[in-house]
Structures are given as structure tokens and as C-alpha cells.
Amino acid sequence: MQHQRVFVIDFGGQYTQLIVRRMRELGVYSEMVPWMSAAERLQKDRPDAVILSGGPRSVLEDGAPDLDLSLVDGLPMLGICYGMQLMAHRLGGRVEKAHDREYGLRNLSERSGLSARLSSDQVWMSHGDQVREVPPGYLVTASTESCPIAGMEDAAQRRFGVQYHPEVTHTPGGKDLLKAFVEAAGLTGDWTAENFIEEQVAQIRQTVGEYGKVLCAVSGGVDSSVMAALLIRAIGPRAVCVFVNHGLLRKGEAEQVVETFGRHFHGNLHAFDERERFFGALAGVTDPETKRKIIGEHFVRVFEDHAQELAGCDFLAQGTLYPDVIESGSSTAAKIKTHHNVGGLPDWMQLKLIEPLRWLFKDEVRAVGRVLGLPEEMVDREPFPGPGLAVRILGEVTPERVATVQDADWIFRTELRNHGAHVGIWQSYAALLDVRSVGVMGDERTYMHPIVLRAVESEDAMTARAVKIPFEVLELVARRIVNEVPGVNRVLYDLTSKPPATIEWE
Ligand code: XMP
Fold first, then answer.
1. Ligand 1, pocket residues at CB < 6 Å
2. Residue 81 annotated to the active site
3. Are the C-beta atoms of residues 291 and 282 closer than 8 Å to each other?
4. What CA–CA distance (Å, rounded) separates 384 from 427?
5. Does residue 207 share a domain with residue 155?
6. Where residue 311 sits, what CATH number does that domain have?
7. Do the Cβ atoms of 34 and 329 come closer than 8 Å?
8. Which of 296, 237, 295 is nearest to 261 (CA)?
9. Does the active-site annotation cover 266?
10. What's the predicted TM-score (pTM) here?
């Protein structure tokens, strides 16, 4: 069964992705469609409703982003900010150029229609132009002191516009308004993890055919694990799962990946222990970018060396998520040259790409993973960089230094859990620095390396803030690390936000 779909036509608004997210949170599948390709898409594909996003331009400018509204004739429609102005401009109302931008929280003085459903009068405004006259047949449904037409609608035609932004959390009742639109548009909220799985399984079977084989590189992270689980559900052992242990995972993680695969995926995993190869290649290397490059290259060599085992694969499954698709604005399946996780693949691998998670946000991937029966420790795993601990070890990466960082990291994350301080953390880890400082232990002077602890909260890794961990927990972790981890005599906590720092140290 095809689920209902809403196209969110993007006019370049900074919050468009949030509209898509909010609709999905309401159980309605929605997809972002750039305005420039909207006409072509709408001619091929008819959605169940459309939302017109905000945007930085003025509908009165020459060459402003536009949409031929006859293409969405008869469809329920919600215009937000620029979207509402476009509706007014194109449907016989009037938009006026503003002298000043209106930006910030405002109170609706009057509201009716869809806006009556907001649980609060407060709304977030960010616009220049204003609608001065609504199109024929439309009623004004919201006003503020400075914006007399902050909402308009023709309920009979199921067409609505709001000048404010219901998709941002600054509009406390925003989700109520979107929910009211969902109801008015007759959308049933049929977008569930179960439906997604059913559709993808069918899709994968169709793409791969009766005999095709898919190479699935898994890292133990949530995206590749969910992807592998989906493929195995669709095509069983023809999903050839490969795990490369580069020796740069956290303590016990490599064993955990193999064990979980054994338990949940019936041993469907080729695990290659390549620690020596990676440590050999990284010996003496200290530059962060060179480390990354070496690790990428050696992944490819592992595939080359195991060509016989992996031969016969026609497809490569990649764990691309929807935010990557939105950012790259790219199109679908193509013969691949590069793989964002494993670098350039060798030529003999004439693989076609499949990306079963390319429509999902991270939290949706986690929900799918739960429905597929993956264990919490896999589904809730923190994001972890592809080059692993190599980017958390400043200076040379050696097996001994990896063991140091693994032990410190283990103590830190275990104590966070023991004290319930892990909740809400995006990433937490220990890094090892390549400077030394003086300390004293027993009667001995020491001259050893410091460990840095880092724990951040974040929405999407683009920005991040240090987490306020209780001081007693930090003290306990510091004490345990200097007592239990050889070679460490000092522990620091990184308080820097991103920007100006980054989440990782390299
Ligand atoms: P930064 O350090 O740039 O990291 O703030 C943002 C997010 O990306 C992860 N990260 C990486 N992931 N390969 C990856 O697959 C990498 O080279 C890499 N570097 C950083 C980081 O863990 C954080 O989630």
C-alpha cells in the first residue's frame, strides 16, 4: 500500500527541513521538493497535500521563486510565510513590500479557523513583506498588532496560509496548527516504522531481483545495523554483511558487533580482523587528515583482498540518511565511484548503490531499528566517527595508546550511566593528548599524558554545547582514570561549544 504523501515545496526557507520533520512527527510522510524542480515532480507524482515553505526573497521581485498553482489544483494547501505571500500574490490578493523586517515573538490579537487551534497566542515571526488583501473567497483568520493579516484561509477549498512559523518551537502551539491542517486535509497519519519496513522490503526485493547479492558494510553503528537488518529481512543471506575491525573502536565494541550479529542476524557476517594492517599503516603518522585518508584507503584494500569472498555482489548498500540527501540535493541510484564511509571503491566492484534509509531522519532510523527487533544498545548507540579513536588520539596511533583511550573512555561512559548522567547526551568520549605534564603518585614524580573528557548535547552535530555533568561524577571519573589507566596523570573536562571548537578533537 502506498502511504499518503505531502510535498513541502522549498522556497529556500531556513526552516523547511523542520516542516518536514514536524509532519513526520504527526505520522504524515512528507518530503522536501525544491521549488525549481517542483513543476517537473508534480507532473509525474501527485501528492495528497502540499505545504509551501518560507523563503528569504520577496514575491514582488523579478525572478522570485514561484510555483504554478494550477499544478496543485484541488489539493489541500498550507502556505507558511513566503508560501502564504505567494498564495496571496498568485490567487488575486495583494502583497506589499515592507520597509522593515518583523522578527521575533508576537501575540495574535485575533484568531479563528486553523489558527484557533493554537494552544497559545504566541507565534514566531520572521518576514519582510506582508499580505495586504486576501484573495477572493478567503477569510482573515489571524492578526497581530503589526500584521493585520497573519492568517488566511478558504476552508471549503482546504487552502490555508499563515504568516508566522508553526514549525519552530518558538511558536508554542505550532504543532497544533499543523495537526489541524493534517485533519483538514484528510491525512490519516499512516507513516509508521512498520509501514516503512514493509515498503522498503518490497522495494529492495524488486530492485535486487531474485538472485542479486548486496554488499552491506556494517560498522556497528545504528545506521548500518538498521540497514543490514532491513536487507536481511528482504533478501536473507543474499545480504552479504561485512565488518572490518580496524582496531579503532571503543572497548569491547568489535566483539559486541560480532556477537549481536550472531544473535540477531543468524551469524550473517563476514568479520575481518584487520587491526595489524591499520596499525601498521598508521605507524608514525600524526597529521589528522593523513590519518583519515589512510584509514579510508585501507578499507578499500580490505575489500580488494577479500575479493573472492565478496565477488558476485551486484549492489552496495549505503546508510545515507535524509539530511544528507537534502544537503547534497542529489538524485537517486547511480553507479558509484565513492562511498562516503569507505572511500573510493576499487574498479572491479561495479556495484550499484542502494540506500534504503535515504528517506529517514536519525530518530526514525532508531524507531525502525526497534521495530526490527534490534537491541537497545545498538539502536541507542551514540554517533561515532568512521576513523574511530584515531581522531581522539592526538599524535601517533599505536595499540598501546588506543588501549589507554579505550580504558579511560570506558570508565567515563560507565560512570555517566551509573549516575544517570548519560541521558540527553549526544556524544561522550575520552581523548588522549600528546603533551605531557608533571604529577606525583605515591612518592614518585610522574611525567605523563592527560586525558580530556568531552560530553556534548546537540540536535544534529552542526552545533553543540558542553553538558553540565555533576562535579562529583567528574571527580570520580578523574580519580578512577588516574588510578586505573597506566600512563595518565591528569584529567581535563572540555567546556568548549561548537562553534568555535568541533565535537571531535581532530
Ligand atoms: P565535528 O568534530 O566536526 O563532528 O564537530 C561532527 C560529527 O561528525 C562526526 N565525525 C566524523 N564522522 N568520519 C565520520 O564518519 C569522520 O571523519 C568524522 N569526523 C567527525 C563526529 O563524531 C560528530 O558526530
1. 292, 383, 385-387, 391, 427, 461, 498, 502-504
2. yes
3. yes
4. 8
5. no
6. 3.40.50.620
7. yes
8. 237
9. no
10. 0.77
